[in-house]
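Handout, tutorial session.
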Amino acid sequence: MPNIRQQKKRVRIAAEERLENLRYRSSIKTLAKRLATAAESGDTAAVEEEHRALAKLIDRAVARGALHRNAGARKKSQAARLAAGPRA
């Protein structure tokens, strides 16, 4: 354990940031699953709404540093393919 006050503060802040990053990643997974189920059901309005919410959350996570920008781009691409529906 750290003895210096600033070190204690850094440990506490790092733990809080880690939990926030976990919340972002978990929420992204949840919204991705919701998009997949909406795409399977075929409800176009629900797919559009879920895709918009997922893309917005991914952008926010990348901006905060919770997700690497290439990982965010990959997840947005996968979501766009899901939202586009099956290939003709």
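The second record follows below. Compare its token runs with those of the first.
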Amino acid sequence: MDEDAIDLVASVGPLDVVVVALREFLHRSGAVRAVAVVDRDPGEGPAVVDCARLAPIEVDFGDRVVHLPHSIELDATAPPLPDVRRLAPFDVDTATAEIAAPIGGVAHLAGAVRELAAALGGRNVAMAQFETSDPDAPLAFTARADGSEPIVLALGEAEFLMDPGWP
């Protein structure tokens, strides 16, 4: 058997709720990717659930990686998710780290990612990437569920730790 083979599964058990939440957030927000780092039982490392547009959902348990078909029906209900609007891709200039967006647009998406993280609970982390005018520089926001750390905004490879409490 190939050591690099990835199993195709129909469920990831208790993480099905996270899969459903990320997939729903992805579809509502127009994100290109939504990821969660999820705490598990004591003694087990965190799991990473990665939901990208038009791709299988990947779950990395640390010692095993599995895929679920993107459109698979799961017997799980997403927690209440943030009200998020789809926005057109922002114009960006990576050389100057400038983002041209509708007033409040960046804060709206950052707040939605923070609310997504909160919906996942605990000290879990959520990250979402959004399209920009530069295909090599998506706009991403990362937030911790308990709000113990400021939101991280990333534009391509550049990361910015936002002021506590923003937005």
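Points raised in discussion: Residues 105-120 form the longest helix (16 residues).
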